[in-house]
Fold these 2 entries.
Entry 1:
Amino acid sequence: MAEEQDKWEEEKESRELLDIHNHRRASVHYLQAAIAVSDSQVQMNDKQHEIGQTNLTSMDKLPREVASELFQASQVSKVVTQKLAGFEFKEKTAITASEVLAYLKSIVHENSFFTFGQESERLSKLITKLHKYLKVALPSYQAKCVGEVGDYTDITTKEDIAKNEIIQTATTVSSWTDF
Amino acid sequence: MFYVLGPLDVELLEAKKEEAVEEKQGMSARTIETPEEKAALAKEQATVHFGRVEADPVALSKLHQDVRDLADKMAASEKLTEEQNERDRRGYQKDLENLIDRLGGFFKPPILSEEFADQDVNCLSLVKDCLPPLSIENIMKFADILKKEAGCTKKDPYFNAVLRKFHRIRYAK
């Protein structure tokens, strides 16, 4: 009976040790993931003009509603500007990377006003679609704005604790947050 | 700021500490002798620290700007002659120490009355033996740590050691 109790105590201790180690690994993983995402966001905000200089490699998967909205905007611009003296309107024939990036930025801003409702859901889906599209069709976007965020997996045995360091020697991971 | 600080890079810092002791000949440096002290130190050095520190946004922004200005001044100074650059670098070293001291200030507990005045910590003396060497690259690393928009992941033994010391101001009794 006493032996069983000792064994149970030992297992409990090792389970707790494993849990603590996993929580620590998870916190480092998610902090690094948050840093990768905010870094992509900063790149998108600060380097949009540089990212937009690269040409789109394909137009096939550009969401249709985005393409039609951009052409409609061009027509609206035509109506507004055609009466201006000396202004010659040029028909829009192609969509550039800068336009898609500006559109993406505008809907990201628009979506931050209301975080609920049907319109917000539609915009969220559209942002995801555009992100997926740009990831494939715009190499500069792929290089600067796609932070790698891997899946986190727990370790399951006590023996793995020694093999899986929480963070490398002399490494600092930090992030400022507003409250 | 939420932060996670990896284990200390002991070898590199010990080498630097020995150099500093050799320079200060005649001054008695306290050495750790008992096995218990050595074990406690080794355990502390291998511990991963997790912590959080708050800073006044204006003070943080000013500190970040000052760090970036220092990097710009250093870059401009490098275009001057060797003597002028050497002269400027002495001033910049003091600036760097001052900036690191200001970072340490965020970790200090608030002194709310005279009763606690003796609990004030001299941050600079704490990190004197692990200050990063003065270089534009290191100053930019410092600026990255202070950058508010995005966090940073840095592998640098000096800033790691400095932040570990500051962490102890806040969390160690």
Entry 2:
Amino acid sequence: MRLRRARRGLVATIPTASMADIAFLLIVFFMVTTAYSLDRTPMELPETTQQEQTQKGSAIISITQDEVYRFSGGEEDARLVDGIGGLAEAIRSVTAANKLHPFVIKADRRVKYRVIDQVLEQLRSAGAENVTLLSQGEARP
Amino acid sequence: MKIARRTLPAVIPTASMADVAFLLIIFFLVASFYSVTRGIQFSLPKHDEAALTAEPEAAVLIEIAATGALTVDNRQMPLADLKSYLLPKLQRNPTKAVILQTSLDATYQNMTDVFDELRQVGVQNLVIPTTAELEMYGLRRLQ
């Protein structure tokens, strides 16, 4: 008598159940590490080789090439301010609450130093101490 | 005759979950590349008359002209030579004051170029006087 082997059909599967878990884990990682820019004004930042990470929640002073000032206290989106006078007022409102509040100057590289000088003077007279000049990385020669 | 009832297993379709998740990953990846959050940091010193009016030997005075040309301690100097000029001075005195005066008509990039070099050499005591400050102490401002 011929014995008939019962054939167990093995189905080839790739276990994908945990794929979604891994993917969500990565999502959470990127969500936490992504810092949204409060100011999205397009401009050409100066290039520097030395760079440090800015502190989260820093107040942002944005200056475009045509000398339009925008300001953000660090939590809300940047808003237009009325010239250097409006900027000085906005800076004072931040330093009045906390003198150690970090500031970030995001200025176009073609802006005249005259403008930066005025902004630095306003920061200094308002008592701000911690300032970062936002820049983009430059390939080390 | 008895009809056999087919029982349908309860399943949640999760096949596309990973696709959605990877799509979100790519979004956050791209978003994290686009946000610029780096720069050169410095502490704005308080009005420091001592550093500003220091004797010429006590501090290094760097002037940036409107064209971007450098004058270091009243001598013309290309940007590439700044490091080698400052390094021995800083080795002797790590807290040596460096005063950076930029012409008001120079560009912001001219100033950050020099600032970048100074940070690379490790200048700790950097003074960036503003026009108002220079006027206060009766010092001249570059034109």
